Amino acid sequence: MNTKAEPTKGASGADIAKLVLAVIVLAAGIFAYSWFGADGSVPQSVRLLGVLAALIISLAIGAFTAPGRRVRAFLGESQFELRKVVWPTRDETLKTTGIIIAVVIVLSLLLGLIDLILKSVVLDWLLKLGT
């Protein structure tokens, strides 16, 4: 478990410029997709590859900023923690699912019975008292 607490620093001017550049590259890719789609001369697959390239380039630019490095560190630690997870076996999963389905059925029948009782009490008994 990682117990170190580090104060987060604000983004530097270079990081902000890189993030703005990444947003501009992504926006340019999306704009180009719609611009070249209007006349129909460029195939859709080429336009999709252009947007995908713009997305990859913008993610690469953003990865070299301080927030990008923090995200990469977080993803690395998450992968490390996922290796520690003990996943249930198929048999355990099926048994747990069966129990959950049985509990849902029992509770729905119970709530339906309560609703039926309340409906009969209100409609048949209380409303007839007022007449």
Distance between the termini: 69 Å
* Element order: H for helix, E for strand: HHHH
From the spread of the alpha carbons, the general shape counts as: elongated
Rg (CA only) = 29 Å
Which percent range fits the helix content? over 70%
Structural class: mainly alpha
Poorly predicted sequence stretches spanning 5 or more consecutive residues = none
Beta-strand content bin: under 5%
Number of separate strands: 0
What's the average pLDDT?
89
**How many DSSP helices?**
4
The main sheet comes to: none
Describe the overall structure.
The protein is 79% helix and 0% strand. It has 131 residues and is mainly alpha-helical. α1 runs antiparallel to α2.
What's the helix and strand layout?
Elements: H1 13-39, H2 44-63, H3 66-82, H4 90-129
Helix pairs in contact: 1-2
List keywords for this structure.
0% strand; 79% helix; elongated; single chain; mainly alpha; 131 residues
